[in-house]
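Deliverable D2.4 — example input (structure tokens):
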């Protein structure tokens, strides 16, 4: 009974629009760099971090106002604690784990394994808790326990939280992490040199009364200072043997320093194009209006020239050489795949307000179809114009959601005008390849909860969600029925094989699991 209540509660929360809206808001605020309010949140958190450090420095030799200490030890720590708990909340979905476990058990004909679900939830949460960023966040909260004066030093860990909020620091970190194996190898090499040289210099110098190296710690200190090529000169070997060791350490230090510099320069060189793209994307996100041209062929070049006379034009081209050609012609060009939904996510733009029209001008009807389908998967209103290479593909482009088609020979010279878009319904067509980005094929389990609202296939109303029901697998009969009729009766354990846009599939799944969703019952 309790297990059923837990599963019902998980479905209720997972299908609650209010809950999902709140979780999406906090996810955008904390993790989504394209969210318009995130930068204000980041600035606020950075201000708190610097305020904490300034108060800590001031407290060393001067009296600090009690109100400031209260603010630093309590208010700031509480804010960081709330942020930590919110990040822990959005790191994984507890309700989804319960639902997945429940459906898995139903499929196998077993009872719901609550303990297994709890174990998976704990593992998922601890995976986040033990991440480096989460540990830094936790250490930044420790000054809350201000009674232990020593713990106030953990305020300095708040500085490391800047890695979350400063985009330039994140860029630098990503560049360095790309060479983490090389840096790890370098660290091992440097550690061996420091260890060997420390022992050697200690053996050579420790028994000499004139030598400043009297302990192993001083030997280690000397080795680190020498291999880093800093050379303070406060500790130097006095014996002939010790100086020979110093010469080898100096040479090794030059090698380590050179290797480190080379790694950093190489990393930035390899990431330079990506960094430039990020700068271009930032510039694009600030544009009020522009035309987005997908594909850069001869026709695209002429169209871009005409449109750029009075408008901003952005080129998106998957082929690197063609993208570079567009840049040489003076256009803003991105080496992205127009048929991938990830490309539009990277753009960080509001298509409804910023994009006047999307022009699919690739010299391939297939690529233009994929581009149109991708755009329609997340926006139904933006105006899409496409070139038509082969008349036989006209219907395919129309089904993909293209507002207007131009035969290639008629296109040049026509497009220098404003386009007014009309909403176009998205239709999934059988020609879609299964690995197409934005389109997915899923199996949806018919559970007790689903059966409470839907008895027959006709009651599913999948067409309302623009989902195609390819077939149904009947668990009892152990048979798959292709294109089932509306009167087909649903049973617990059946599987619905559906195809459609990923977002539509998610909405359809929520609809199925909402109690009382079938008003006709």
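Example output (designed residues):
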């Amino acid at each position: 009974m309790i297990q059923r209540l837990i599963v019902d509660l998980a479905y209720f929360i997972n299908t609650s629009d209010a809950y999902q809206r709140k979780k999406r808001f906090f996810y955008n605020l904390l993790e989504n760099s394209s969210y318009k309010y995130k930068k204000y949140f980041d600035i606020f958190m950075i201000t708190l971090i610097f305020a904490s450090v300034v108060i800590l420095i001031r407290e060393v030799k001067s009296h600090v106002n009690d109100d400031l200490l209260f603010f630093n030890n309590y208010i700031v720590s509480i804010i960081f604690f709330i942020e930590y708990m919110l990040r822990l909340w959005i790191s994984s979905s507890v309700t989804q784990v319960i639902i997945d476990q429940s459906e898995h058990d139903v499929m196998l004909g077993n009872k719901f394994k609550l303990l297994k679900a709890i174990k998976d939830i704990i593992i998922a949460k601890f995976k986040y808790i033990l991440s480096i960023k989460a540990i830094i966040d936790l250490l930044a909260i420790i000054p809350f326990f201000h009674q232990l004066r020593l713990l106030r030093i953990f305020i300095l860990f708040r500085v490391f939280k800047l890695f979350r909020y400063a985009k330039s620091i994140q860029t630098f970190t990503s560049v360095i992490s790309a060479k983490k194996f090389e840096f790890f190898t370098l660290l091992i090499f440097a550690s061996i040199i420091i260890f060997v040289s420390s022992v050697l210099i200690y053996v050579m110098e420790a028994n000499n009364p004139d030598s400043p190296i009297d302990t192993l710690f001083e030997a280690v200190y000397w080795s680190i200072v020498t291999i880093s090529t800093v050379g303070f000169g406060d500790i130097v070997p006095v014996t002939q043997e010790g100086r020979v060791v110093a010469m080898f350490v100096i040479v090794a230090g030059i090698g380590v320093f050179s290797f480190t510099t080379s790694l950093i320069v190489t990393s930035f060189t390899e990431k330079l194009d990506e960094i430039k793209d990020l700068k271009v994307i930032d510039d694009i996100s600030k544009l009020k209006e522009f035309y987005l041209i997908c594909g850069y062929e001869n026709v695209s070049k002429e169209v871009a020239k005409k449109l750029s006379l009075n408008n901003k034009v952005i080129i998106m081209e998957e082929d690197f050489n063609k993208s570079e050609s567009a840049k040489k012609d003076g256009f803003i060009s991105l080496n992205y795949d127009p048929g991938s939904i990830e490309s539009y996510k990277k753009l960080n733009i509001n298509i409804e307000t910023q994009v006047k029209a999307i022009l699919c001008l690739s010299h391939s009807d297939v690529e233009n179809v994929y581009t149109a389908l991708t755009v329609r998967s997340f926006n139904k209103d933006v105006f899409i114009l496409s070139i038509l290479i082969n008349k036989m593909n006209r219907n395919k482009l129309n089904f993909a959601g293209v507002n207007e088609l131009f035969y290639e020979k008629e296109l040049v010279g026509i497009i220098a005008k404003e386009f007014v878009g009309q909403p176009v319904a998205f239709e999934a067509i059988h020609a879609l390849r299964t690995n197409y980005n934005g389109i997915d094929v899923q199996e949806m389990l018919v559970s007790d909860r689903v059966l409470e609202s839907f008895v027959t296939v006709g009651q599913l109303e999948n067409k309302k969600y623009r989902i195609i029901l390819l077939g149904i697998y009947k668990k009892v009969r152990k048979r798959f029925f292709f294109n089932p009729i509306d009167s087909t009766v649903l049973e617990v354990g059946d599987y619905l094989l559906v195809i459609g846009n990923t977002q539509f599939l998610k909405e359809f799944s929520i609809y199925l699991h909402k109690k009382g969703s079938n008003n006709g019952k």
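Residues 385 and 395 are 14 Å apart (CA to CA).
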